[in-house]
Amino acid sequence: MPVAIEFLVLGLAAGVFGGIFGLGGGAILIPALVYLFGFSQHTAQGTTLAIMVPPIGLLAAWKYYANGHVDLHAVPLICLGFFFGGLVGAYMIQPVPDLLLKRLFGGFLLIVALRMMFGK
After folding, report:
1. Which domain holds residue 16?
2. Which long-range contacts (CB under 8 A, 24 or more apart) does 95-104 make?
């Protein structure tokens, strides 16, 4: 699968999880860019900030970009997937009971945290 398609799929998945759990950048995109695409932690963070620029990370993304830590090829593709994936995830999660959503959210964050702490 070409990298462009992989970035679109990542954006879609992050959007779906964002729509379901109300999160995306720190908990989904950064670990995915590090572990699936081999980005450095700095480039993953800078690229994620650039994806969510207006208005969240404009100045921070610019600083990462100025230091060479933004992948401009990945940004528009992941952003496009994230845009539509967020809508899909928001639709999917509406019928899920609140308690189950809390447990799914906590479990997902725990898995990501353990991977970030103890992974390569």
Report:
1. 3-118
2. 101/20, 101/21, 104/20, 104/21
What is the distance between the alpha carbons of residues 119 and 31, in angstroms, rounded to a whole number? 10
Question: Mind listing the pLDDT tens digit of every residue in the chain (120 residues)?
Answer: 568 899 999 989 888 888 887 776 678 888 889 889 999 989 988 888 888 776 666 787 888 899 999 999 998 998 899 889 888 988 888 898 888 988 988 898 899 889 889 987
Question: Residue 31's closest CA among 16, 47, 20, 19?
Answer: 47
Q: Look up the pTM and report it.
A: 0.69
CB 47 within 8 A of CB 77: no
> What's the CA gap between 79 and 102, in Å, rounded?
26
Number of domains in the chain: 1
Q: How far is it, in rounded angstroms, from Cα 6 to Cα 60?
A: 25
Q: What is the dihedral of CA 5, 9, 11, 14, to 10 degrees?
A: -160
